[in-house]
Design brief:
single chain
């Protein structure tokens, strides 16, 4: 019965998002209210559960996600992302330009949100395509695969950050394990797979053939350091935490404090040192908040539904039923996220909805929560098709047919999801 009720709720969510075209936050609230009623919760408790779910989910994420959005926006607006890409392309040379763009996409993808990184990298990809007369999909897809991998696996991106909170994982450990899974995943879904795409006909717009910016770029060292500083500090503080739990270490290792420090550094290195006024930098930060507001609302709505399912005892009932399946929670979490992703199209919604269902089973099976984050993250990246905005962005920018978009973009995303799960299962045997 518990399974049937959850299926009904997820089906209702899918209908509201895809057919009714409702805002995701509104859809989550409607489904949460409906779930509370059909699950027999006291009607006066349903609003309290919704409020608790929103508060508990967003409270630990608000600072990290907003500060991360501000940092990413400044990295893009200041020209630091362009400097990173240009530096790598010069270092690798024309022969290995695909690898240069791949690495640039991975580095830039760490601080930047997926959509921002996508739009930012497209002119760089097309300028290389026209300059060296190379196949567009062959050159571009590995770079965009790098953005997808960072979006699904690595904090401080919103989805893995939210999953860290939902599963009670450690952000530093998740980041370290995420790198281990991300690298082979990216190599297989990127350069290896793209070898079979050289003959796909693409006619990218010539508007990017001479893409360049007249704005002076920040220095190379400052650009790399500022973009990678959150990763460096999270990994360092995670390493130091093994040598004892000092109060000062607990303070400086908190992800929100780390992101605040990184943002202050960026304000100086990519703002004040580049002759930008503080008011201009603050305006950039204000724009970043607008960019991330929708994502925060999706996370809040998913938190409300998760709380309803938990308080009604459905999550525990599902976990108990799944125990008899003799299937790892890592695989079930991946599968749940993959199914929801295929139906809804949003990786964030897929990951957070699956997390609410699978969290009790993870606790019962004593699964490593950091690996659980990566498993659900991998599932949330599975098979992107016509209901995903990324699918259409890739199709239109590269001027592909739907058939060739499915054969390139959709297969790439599926490879990322499958290889990501395999990487997680290998790590489970090792750690």
């Amino acid at each position: 019965m518990a399974f049937l009720l959850v299926v009904i709720c997820i089906a209702m969510l899918i209908v509201l998002l895809t057919w009714a075209k409702l805002n995701a936050f509104v859809a989550f609230l409607i489904v949460s209210l409906f779930a509370g009623i059909i699950l027999g919760m006291p009607v006066n408790y349903i609003p309290l559960a919704i409020q608790k779910g929103i508060g508990d989910t967003v409270s630990g994420l608000l600072g990290i996600i907003i500060l991360g959005a501000m940092l990413g926006k400044l990295v893009a607006e200041s020209g630091a992302a362009r400097q990173i890409a240009d530096t790598l392309m010069k270092a690798f040379g024309p022969r290995y330009v695909q690898w240069a763009l791949l690495l640039a996409g991975f580095i830039i993808g760490i601080p930047l949100f997926y959509g921002v990184g996508f739009v930012l990298m497209i002119p760089l990809i097309f300028s290389v395509v026209y300059q060296y007369k190379l196949p567009a999909v062959y050159i571009g897809l590995p770079t965009l695969a790098a953005l997808s991998v960072t979006h699904g696996f690595l904090p401080p991106h919103p989805s893995p950050t939210a999953l860290v909170t939902q599963f009670g994982a450690n952000m530093g450990h998740t980041l370290l394990l995420g790198f281990i899974v991300a690298i082979p995943t990216l190599l297989i879904a990127g350069p290896l797979f793209s070898r079979y795409l050289k003959n796909i006909p693409a006619a990218p717009s010539t508007m990017f053939s001479h893409a360049a910016s007249s704005k002076p770029l920040p220095g190379k060292g400052l650009s790399f350091l500022t973009a990678l500083l959150p990763v460096i500090l999270l990994m360092l503080t995670t390493t130091f935490s093994h040598f004892g739990q000092q109060p000062w270490l607990h303070l400086v290792s908190d992800p929100t404090i780390i992101m605040l420090f990184c943002l202050l550094v960026a304000t100086f290195t990519l703002g004040i040192l580049q002759q930008s006024k503080v008011k201009e930098v603050m305006s950039t930060y204000g724009d970043a908040i607008k960019d991330v507001a929708g994502i925060l609302l999706i996370i809040a709505g998913a938190g409300a539904l998760k709380q309803i399912l938990a308080d009604a005892g459905v999550s525990a009932a599902i976990a108990k039923a799944m125990q008899s399946w003799n299937i790892s929670a890592l695989v079930l979490g991946w599968l749940a996220a993959a199914v929801i992703r295929a139906c809804v199209g949003s990786a964030t919604i897929a990951g957070l909805t699956a997390a609410g269902m699978i969290a009790p089973l993870m606790i019962q099976q004593q699964v490593n929560p950091n690996l659980m984050v990566l498993s659900v993250g991998a599932g949330s990246l599975m098979f992107s098709h016509v209901n995903d905005a990324g699918f259409w962005m890739f199709k239109e920018y590269f001027n592909l047919s739907i058939k060739h978009t499915l054969l390139s973009w959709s297969v790439m995303e599926t490879i990322v999801g499958v290889v990501g799960l395999l990487g997680v299962l290998v790590l489970e045997k090792i750690i």
